[in-house]
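User: My collaborator sent over this chain with a note saying "see what the structure looks like." That's all I know about it. Can you take a look?
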Amino acid sequence: AGVFYGASTTNAREMTGSEVVVVGAGNSGGQAAVDLARYARGVTIVTRGASLAATMSAYLVHEIEVNPRIEVRVESEVVAGGGDGELEWLEIDSRATGERRRVAASGLFVLIGTESRTTWLREVLQRDDRGFVLTGSDVDVASWSLPRPPYAFETSVPGVFAAGDVRANGVKRVAAAAGEGAVTVSMVHRYLADLSRESGAS
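Assistant: Without extra context I'll predict from the sequence alone. Here is the result:
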């Protein structure tokens, strides 16, 4: 308990009065730190980079710099953690100085981006340059085999749908993935209804 791969409002409220660590220097990590700082006693951002400016929007960098509850540890990484049944501490290494520091932490929020695992689909479905699956209006219709355009969440293969983190241009959040899945079910029913009509007409 205590390790999260996203930072919802509920998660933030659960950290009221606690020390938390955010790993990641992108916009998602920066926004999480700002949101968590509304409730947590202290927030430490850990990044392997030399600064936040190269990977985070300027407005977030400014919000972090002026927030007394947020500390930034650059050129650093979390190397260990522990506790009795729940997270209580983390160890952070400074790659610049070699110093290892143990800090109290009730929450570790890992927001380091996503990596697609779709190489097994490369000969079958259209993907973007990062390997995420193209769906709906993002599909290149030059290779689309039906007279209608792809349905929402439908891939470059008619009747094959994708939802959640695997999809290009997705939000990459659990709640969003659940919502996409629910919409995809309705699209599958629509596709099957099309097949039924075509079968009845032939």
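A starting point for your reply to your collaborator: Residues 119-201 form a domain with the FAD/NAD(P)-binding domain fold (CATH 3.50.50.60).
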